[in-house]
Amino acid sequence: MFDPALWFEALAALLGVAVAGWLVSLPLRNVSIVDSLWSLKFLLCGLLYVVAQAHPGPRGYLVLALLAVWSLRLAGHITWRNRGHGEDRRYQEIRRNNEPGFAWKSLYIVFGLQALLAWIISLPLLGAATGQAALGPLDALGAAVWLVGFVFEAGGDLQLARFKAQPTNAGRVMDRGLWRYTRHPNYFGDFCIWWGFYAFALANGAWWSVPGPLLMSLLLMRVSGVTLLERDIGERRPQYAEYVRRTAAFFPARPRPQ
């Protein structure tokens, strides 16, 4: 059952986190910290949704456990990856395009917007937490899709980190391991994880939570994921054009012959 009051309580909590993150970013002059908060926002929502239930069912606890594994790993990975690098070039561009006054504008165009997006995407977590339907085949499907997604996301991140750690790979394009089958295994993994969460919600009758994975899919494939990352990567890495020619953009596929 959809619980609008609980959903709006989550929005209030997310906006509180957004304001806190914004305040931290001001002396640092670095809004990139918002990326480290992204997955943690969903963990906060999941906790609120489950704790609010008088008698949380096994599905709620299972989804919360999977959510915690995904959220904490991703937040840790992003924080470690960004350490010592200053503000990400994407946010530097946003800063340039919104001066003067970006320090204040970043409250709503960066931190507030991300909180709103997380609130909508969290719908399957609400759907999985509210209800007492017994575990069944859709839950098994959700767990399987989640696992595929986690392998692609965590595995892709680990493979890329190891690749970049080798000085001989400076300026080269990562085209090994999972990156041989899709140019964005981490984004594909995120896609699977959220459709896995939707399967759990659907098993609870929460068909209405579908805007969550749909919005995440749109962001990953058309907005802040593939499209944004590949907008200028060809200019920075000329050999990327050949990688594009033989490697699937998002959904894994057999590489084309060289």
Please give a structural write-up.
There is one protein chain. The chain has 12 helices and no strands. The termini are far apart. The chain has helices at 4-28, 33-51, 58-82, 89-97, 102-121, 123-129, 137-165, 185-203, 211-223, 226-229, 233-236, 240-246. The chain is mainly α.
> What characteristic shape results from the CA principal axes?
globular
Cα-atom Rg, whole angstroms? Answer: 19 Å
Alpha plus pi helix count: 12
Coarse structural class: mainly alpha
What are its keywords?
single chain, 258 residues, mainly alpha, globular
Could you write a compact summary of the structure shown?
The chain is mainly α and about 260 residues long.
